[in-house]
């Protein structure tokens, strides 16, 4: 009995034991009144009172049986969008379960306890069926309402946590991907250009300023247009080209109709930076990075030929994990990563302008 009465708050999101303690006596009294109310009109108060334990017995049987069956259904169909499945299975269970419980419960009373109501006070079978099923459905509906409220509360909490993680990851992107190595290399390149070509040095400073201004301006934004992100990326690539020259080859093939689509801020720069950080770029082995739109879906693919450095920078994976986490806030579309001996490719989803926060609950 203690096991049956055990709290299932971890499953339902609320403790239903208070409902059991208050509900079974109350429902029993209502059922007893509906089924045996005619005894009151006949002033057979003693018989009416003696029928109450029978109502209490069957109400408890129905309640605990359907409670356990509802727990099973919730485990099998736990999500909010499983609502219709839960309701359909539960309704069928209640109708079938009524006849089973009525038969077995009555059999126990007659055979084990040797109890049987007189024929003249036996309740109307149709009224008994309707009353028992309706009250069972009402109780399960109350359970379902509390369960849905609990799930909604969890959804709001998880969404808030996801939002905080998103903001945190954006700040992390700012700290981790204003890369000290990139800044160091850029300053070295600038130092060389000052002595070689002052005009190119001025242009380099302008592009470098634009890159860092973009990093600072967009780390608090949730999404930016692909066109804006490409404008920034071109400035970033200009800095790399000054450093690597013809050893770095950039190819762009993007459908113009996709330029108004949205993308996670800095995602292109981080993905492009991964290509440069991981791979050798020399005159003998030029590094080719291609950014192209997809013909079979709203994706932008960043692809490079694989020619890994002897000592790989393992911190690069942090950048991709950061992007994946930030994308999960807005869409269920996965970031596609393909790697073999010759090619490494990252597919970034392109999002609509009116996209809303993704809900997984």
Mean pLDDT: 79
CATH architectural group of the largest domain? 2-Layer Sandwich
How many domains? The number is 2
**CATH homology group of the largest domain:** Histidine kinase-like ATPase, C-terminal domain
Gyration radius from CA atoms, angstroms:
34 Å
Low-confidence spans: pLDDT under 50, at least 5 residues? Answer: none
Overall body shape? rod-shaped
> In what order do the strands lie side by side in the largest sheet?
2-4-5-7-6
Give me the number of helical elements: 10
Structural class: alpha+beta
**Into which percent range does the helicity of residues fall?**
55-70%
The count of DSSP E runs of length 2 or more, i.e. the number of strands, is 7
What does the main sheet amount to?
5 strands, mixed
One letter per element, helices H and strands E, the order comes to HHHHHHHEHEEHEEHEE
């Amino acid at each position: 009995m203690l096991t049956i009465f055990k709290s299932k708050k971890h499953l339902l999101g609320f403790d239903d034991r208070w409902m059991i303690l208050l509900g079974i006596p109350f429902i029993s009294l209502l059922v007893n009144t509906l089924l045996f109310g005619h005894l009151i009109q006949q002033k057979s108060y003693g018989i009416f009172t003696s029928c109450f334990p029978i109502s209490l017995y069957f109400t408890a049987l129905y309640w605990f049986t359907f409670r356990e069956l509802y727990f099973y259904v919730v485990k099998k169909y736990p999500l909010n969008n499983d609502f219709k499945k839960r309701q359909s299975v539960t309704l069928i269970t209640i109708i079938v379960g009524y006849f089973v419980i009525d038969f077995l419960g009555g059999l126990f009373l007659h055979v084990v306890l040797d109890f049987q109501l007189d024929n003249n006070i036996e309740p109307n079978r149709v009224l008994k069926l309707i009353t028992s099923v309706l009250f069972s459905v009402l109780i399960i509906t109350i359970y379902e309402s509390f369960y849905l409220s609990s799930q909604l509360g969890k959804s709001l909490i998880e969404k808030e946590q996801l939002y905080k993680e998103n903001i945190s990851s954006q700040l992390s992107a700012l700290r981790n991907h204003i890369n000290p190595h990139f800044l160091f290399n850029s300053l070295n390149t600038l130092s060389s250009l000052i002595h070689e070509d002052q005009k190119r040095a001025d242009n380099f400073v302008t592009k470098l300023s634009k890159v860092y201004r973009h990093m600072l301006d967009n780390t608090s934004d949730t999404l930016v247009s692909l066109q804006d992100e490409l404008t920034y990326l071109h400035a970033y690539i200009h800095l790399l080209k000054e450093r690597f020259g013809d050893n770095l080859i950039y190819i762009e093939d993007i459908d113009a109709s996709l330029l108004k689509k949205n993308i996670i801020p800095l995602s292109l720069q981080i993905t492009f930076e991964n290509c440069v950080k991981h791979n050798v770029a020399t005159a003998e082995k030029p590094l080719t990075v291609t950014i192209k739109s997809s013909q079979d879906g709203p994706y932008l693919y960043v692809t490079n030929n694989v020619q890994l450095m002897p000592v790989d920078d393992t911190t690069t994976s942090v950048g991709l994990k950061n992007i994946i986490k930030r994308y999960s806030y807005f869409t269920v579309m996965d970031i596609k990563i393909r790697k073999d001996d010759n090619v490494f490719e990252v597919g970034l989803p392109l999002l609509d302008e009116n996209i809303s926060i993704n809900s997984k609950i």
